[in-house]
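Narrative summary of target 7.
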Amino acid sequence: KAKMLAETPPHLIDARTKGIPSIGAGAVYPLSESEFLIDDIPIQTHWPRAYALDVGWNKTAALWAAFDPAAKITYLYAEYYRGQAEPPIHASAIKTRGDWIPGVIDPASSGSGQRDGKKLAQQYGKGSHGLGLDLTFANNDVEAGIQAVWTGLSTGSIKVFKSLQNWRAEYRMYHRDEKGRIVKERDHLMDCTRYLMLTGMKRATVERL
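Modeled conformation, tokenized:
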């Protein structure tokens, strides 16, 4: 322990020893990527899956996760990241990952528009005029979500595939300002990660054959 503490920068000691994210300015998750990144592995058919969706005109992002019940590990295994496209294009791409996989969506989408002002959650969903995605609203408690993600990353119960290049880019930029507030820039997949940990994995299921 003394050796590990000696090798840990002072501003990371609380995070490394107590699992407490930094609340001041700086990285939200002060953890080396080597501690949770893994080479891509096959997702087993008996592992329940779910995804999270963050929608907008400038960028729409989705993140898929699978849970290995034996190892009790959640794997973040696929991402979707595209801007300036209409909802049917996004929905079609999401369905190619498995239209049976349930998802959760940013609750703010119920009151936001995309060009024509339609409610995006309703537009993407399974209603009579929807695009057929199986969606419910995610819990958007930011600090509770960050704590859940931090705990998973730091204890090894969340692993991230190395192929998720956009997720990794956002992770490196995800930080707080000098007042401790999350800087809302390029954080779509970081939001999706929170949604998955608080709500999405409770909906996770396996494909019914």
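The beta strands are 26-27, 37-38, 49-54, 60-68, 73-82, 103-105, 135-137, 158-161, 175-176.
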